Amino acid sequence: MLAHLTIVPGVGLALGDMLFYAICFIILMWLIKLVAWKPVNKMMQDRADKIANDIDSAEQSRTDAAKLAAQRQEALANSHKEASSIVSDAKQQGQQTRTSLLADAQSDVQTLKSNAQKDIEQERQDALSNAKNDVADLSIEIASKIIHKELNANDQKALIDSYIEGLGKHNES
């Protein structure tokens, strides 16, 4: 009757059965440790490493994206500066071209004005010369008719010069 030792009266659990179950449990745990625990532990470690790598990779990607966004923003700012510079240069060049064209036009106007004044003066001189010759011819003809004789060259010249001086004084007043 000692074969049946009971720990708890009325339950009917024998100490030997309990010892047998404990040894089986320990052996089962040891087998699970050998067969399943290492692969499960390795799988869990691999999973933890993969998650850590993914987090690091995501952080690296986020950092790279932030750098790329900053570079694009800087490139955009530089392109705005370049565009402003190009527009400014174009305006400045247009202003210089305008100034140059105006200066050339003013120079051309001055040249045309000067040439016109020279032409007018030449025409005036030609008209005066023609008038002088016409007056000289008329005065000789009038003098010939008045005097009824032919004047010599020196007399003609003296008569013309005095007549022209009289005309010059008459035009001035």
In short:
By secondary structure, the chain is an all-alpha fold. It has helices at residues 15-147, 153-172. Keywords: ATP synthesis, Cell membrane, CF(0), Hydrogen ion transport, Ion transport, Membrane, Transmembrane, Transmembrane helix, Transport.
Structure commentary:
- The chain is an all-alpha fold.
- The protein has one domain (30-159).
- 88% of the residues lie in helices and 0% in strands.
- It has two helices and no strands.
- It has helices spanning 15-147, 153-172.
- Helix 1 packs across helix 2.
- One of its GO terms (molecular function) is proton-transporting ATP synthase activity, rotational mechanism.
- Belongs to the ATPase B chain family.
- Pfam families: ATP-synt_B.
- It comes from Secundilactobacillus malefermentans.
- Keywords: ATP synthesis, Cell membrane, CF(0), Hydrogen ion transport, Ion transport, Membrane, Transmembrane, Transmembrane helix, Transport.
Quote the beta fraction.
Answer: under 5%
Assign a percent range to the helix content. Answer: over 70%
Low-pLDDT segments: 1-6
Radius of gyration: 64 Å
Structural class assignment? mainly alpha
Coarse shape: rod-shaped
Main sheet: strands, sense, barrel? none
Q: Describe the oligomeric state of these chains in a short phrase.
A: single chain
Alpha-carbon distance between the two ends: 175 Å
Q: What is the number of strand segments?
A: 0
User: How many domains would you count in the coordinates?
Assistant: 1
List SSEs in N-to-C order: HH
Question: Helical stretch count?
Answer: 2
